[in-house]
Every structure is written in C-alpha cells, then in structure tokens.
Write a structure and sequence with these properties.
Length: 534
Amino acid sequence: MTPEGLETEKKYDVDPGAGLPALREIPGVGRVGEASEAVLEAVYFDTDDLTLASRGITLRRRTGGADAGWHVKLPAESGTESAPQQRREIHAPLGQAAVVPEKLLAHVYVYLRGAQLAPAARLTTKRTTHALYGDDGVHLADFADDRVGSESLGGAGQHQEWREWELELVHGSAELFASAEPILAAAGAWPAAHKSKLGRALGEAWPQPSGQRSSGQQPSGQRGEIPDEEAAEPHKKARDKKEPVSGVVTAYLGGQIGEILACDPGVRLEEPDAVHNMRTATRRLRSTLAVYRTLFGAAAVRRLRDELQWLGRILGSPRDAEVMRERLRAHAAELPPGQASRAVQDSVERELGNRFDAGYRKALEVLAADRYFRLLDDLEDFRDNPPVRPPASGPGGKVAAKRVKKTVRRLRRSHRAAMRAVEGAAHETALHQVRKDAKRLRHAAESVVPLYGKRAVKLAKAAHRQQKILGDHHDSVMARVFLGKLGRGPELPEAVADAYRSLLEREERIAARDEAKYRKARRKARKLLKRGVN
C-alpha cells in the first residue's frame, strides 16, 4: 500500500476451525504464493461519542507487518452492501504512540470539530497472507486469514475473539470477488456482519451511520465543472419531477456540503486548488439558499447565507491574491527586458506574495475556529432537518423551474442596468453585478440537472460562459486598481513608471475585449435564457 491509496476489499466471517479455501481454484488465479505470517497490534482512536466511526472513518496506530505506522481510512465510495468496500487509506510513520501525526489529523479535523481523540480499542491480529497471482504473473490480490483478539478501551472493556478472511485487490479487477465467492463459501465463509474489525470490537457501542452525512470523499480532479451534455441523461432520470422540491434542493446542498468537507484537508495541507474549490462550494451553497430561500425558514436561511459569506470572504483573500499574482506575473514577463521590468516583477511578487501568505494564515486560523465548526454543524442540520415551509412540498419540477425563471429575470435586469450605466466605475460595478447574477443562475440551473437533464446543463453552461468572461473583466478591473497604487509609489524611476503604465494599458485593452466577448455570449444565449429549463 502506498502512503495514499485506494483500498478495495471484501471481508468474510468464518468458523475458527474451518480449513483454508482452495485458492488455486478461483477462476483467473494461476498461482498462490507461499504463506507469510505476521502479528499486528493496533490501537484505534476516536472521540468519546465515536464521531469518526459514525462517518465510516478509522484512525489507528499499528505495529507489525509490512505497513506498520499510523493509518487513516476514509470512505471513497458508498456502493452497495454486497459490493466490495473501497476506502482511501493514508499512512504516516509510527512516531510517538499517543501523538497522531499532523498529516493524518488534517484529514479528520473537519469531523472532530474541536473534540479530543482518545484510544477506543486495541486489536491483536495473527495474520496469514497468501498472494494470488494470475497466469501472467500479475499480483492480483492478497488473501488474509486473520485470527483477531480485541479489547474495547472505553466503558467496561469488552473482550472478543474471532476469525475472519479478507480478500484485498492489488492489481486485479473487481471481477475477482465474484469469481472467489463460490470457493470461499464452499470452505464455510459468509459475508462479514461488520464492515470493519473495529465495528465488531466495539459491538453495541458502534454508532449508527450519521444519516446523509458526507464521508470525506476525495476531491475530484476538476471541481466546479458542469456535466457535459452526454453525461446529462442519467441525471435527467435521477429524480421524479413530482417529488417535493425540498428533496431536490437538499440533495444539491448536500453535495456542496460534501465538497467543503472533502476540500478542508487540502486547505490545511496547502494543496493546489483546495482553497479555490472550497470557496466555490461555499458560493454554490449561498447561491442555492438565495434562489430557494422562500421554501425554508427565513431566519435559518439568512444565518447560513451570512456565515457562508463570511467563510467565502476569508477564502477569497488568498485566492484573489493568487489569481492576480499569476495574471500579472505572466503580463510582466512580456515587458521589455531590463532593470525596470525586473523592478516591476519584484514589486508584484512581493506585494501579492505577502497578501497571499497573510490571507492563507488567516484561513488556517478560521478552519480551527469554533465559528467555522458551528457553520458545518448548522449546514448538516439544515440538510438533514430542513426548516421547510409549505411551498417546499410542491412538485420539484414545477417549483424549481419557476425559481430558475425568476433567476433568469434577475440576470436580465442587471444586464439592462449595466448597458444603461455610464462608462467608468459605475459601468464596471454594474457588469460585476451581472457576473454575480450569472453565477447565481448557473448554480440554480445545476441544482435542477437531476430534473431537467440536458436543458439544465445547457442553461448552466451559458450562464457559466457569461460568468467566466465577466470574471476575467473584473480581474482586469482589480488589476488596474492594484497597478495604479504601485505605479504611484514615491520617487519611482520614470522607466519603472512607464512599465506600470504599459501594464495598465494592457489591462484596459483586455477589459474592453472581455466586454465585447460578453455581449456576444449574451446574444448567443438569448434563446436559452428565454426558454429556461422548460
């Protein structure tokens, strides 16, 4: 197992006296390796109320075997009861016995929310492992015969002993599980009653799954992308237009809450795009609450929107500095080489680098604050126990389409206002409002993809196109403000001042070009906007 990998396995219960299965007879297995034995000692950590276990997460320190060290396992896919279990597994060196490595803590802080970790159980496993190889010599899987002894460390300290088998893929495909099933059953095995050894060790203390709570799935490579039209069909059939609109909305909200939970560790570990992805999820949540605000209790919606705005502002500080630094770094690199160019580049790097560092430090402080944890609790409570009003019971297709149509009208009004605004700051501010309303429409359209499929996807894409163009326009406006301040520095050499003026002129040309592109995109989307999702 690599320091971070995907574990795919199935567990089986078996009587203590059962003989080993005929592993060589599993279809696709060409050779069974020599048995290897190990004694594994593991201490599992959780909160007093087993917060991690309730979300399908395990954190342990294990000695013995080839992968001794600290491990955190995060659910990767929900799957079905009969499907092989997939989990992300992240490792860290053994270190100190009672000190969880920061690398692993970063993945569970978002669930602990200030609660303390303590040992929950100790397991001793005598493991005999057989490697299974294909006819071509490929290492397909490992079959483990485990004899387990457990001691729960909370309460009465329950002791148990049992035997189980585990089949874990290495380079083989999931079809191997189906092939192995008859062979294992013939030897006396049956699907395990517990998904994990820890679950069996804790017995009745094992918590029930936490409703719809997200399980910390790994963020996908590209966040915030709208499904392409070919992928829209499954979404179109996913929900009945007659079901209550509250279910449609909370399902979409739940997905974005899951995004925040999934991105949180990446922000703490300073991974690329983590801040951007987390900020995007907060914006989607805030937009959706705004679009459907009349369906839910006003006070709850207002409180969540205010707190999401606060979180988005905190995340926006380092992200905006990062975007502007990349933008101006590229533009400054195209200035004529010389001392003036280097002076401009150094100043841009220094000023925006300081902004980014300060903003990121503040973001990390906020992610450890009670206010942030309360927001997460409130979001999950809203998702699981939405404060619905009577309109929320209306048919999803009809009610949601009206909400989308109203959002289209809002965008149309802001567009007209921008076209009437005089040139200069007022016009730029009006175009920024168009951008925000296009973003709201994009999110509204995304929320009804499960109801309206391709039509919703097309509308979301059209809104996204306008949002992106005007986002570039706004970046240009903010870059001009920044460059103007730097260009007015005291005792600035004339050559350096000329370099700043060159960058300012470039940004003015870019802004004019972006506005022309927006007008073209607006004309192209006119029919889509008029039709909405119906």
